[in-house]
């Protein structure tokens, strides 16, 4: 009901489309990890603003690569992995470059150099 139109025809079309569309299956979805990742993602938004200002005022920048542990267990769902990746990449000082293994992200980051 994206159109905010509650006429009978629109409701019937919406119900038919929702029945036809396949249901989403998320294997290995642990609610605890999902809620934890969503909270971490919400906390990352103010951190992103802080890092943006910090990046503007850096005089000497140094780029480094670090290995960051994944917050998701090895058998975690792809959705929780996506939230973990999104949270890391959301902030301007960090960018995930690759997945080293199931437990580690390779992260490019910028820090203050001398």
Quick structural summary:
This protein has 114 residues and is α+β, with helices and mostly antiparallel strands. The protein has helices at residues 8-20, 31-56, 78-90; strands spanning 61-69, 94-101, 104-112.
Q: Would you write up a description of this structure?
A:
It contains 3 helices and 3 strands, in the order ααβαββ. With 114 residues, the protein is an alpha+beta fold. Strands 1-3-2 form a 3-stranded antiparallel β-sheet, covered by helices on one side. The N and C termini lie far apart (56 Å). The chain has one domain.
Helix/strand layout:
Layout: H1 8-20, H2 31-56, E1 61-69, H3 78-90, E2 94-101, E3 104-112
Antiparallel strand pairs: 1-3, 2-3
| Count of domains | 1
The major beta sheet can be summarized as: 3 strands, antiparallel
Neighbour order of strands in the largest sheet: 1-3-2
Helical residues, percent? 40-55%
Distance between the termini: 56 Å
Low-confidence sequence ranges: none
Which short descriptors sum up this protein?
114 residues; alpha+beta; three-stranded antiparallel sheet
């Amino acid at each position: 009901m994206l159109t905010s139109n509650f006429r009978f025809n629109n409701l019937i079309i919406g119900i038919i489309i929702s029945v036809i569309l396949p249901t989403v299956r998320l294997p290995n979805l642990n609610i605890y990890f999902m809620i934890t990742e969503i909270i971490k993602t919400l906390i990352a938004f103010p951190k992103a603003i802080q890092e943006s200002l910090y990046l503007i005022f850096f005089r000497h920048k140094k780029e480094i690569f670090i290995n960051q542990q994944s917050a998701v267990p090895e058998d975690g769902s792809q959705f929780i992995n996506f939230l973990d990746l999104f949270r890391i990449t959301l902030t301007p000082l960090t960018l995930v470059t690759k997945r080293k293994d199931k437990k580690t992200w390779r992260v490019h980051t910028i820090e203050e150099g001398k």
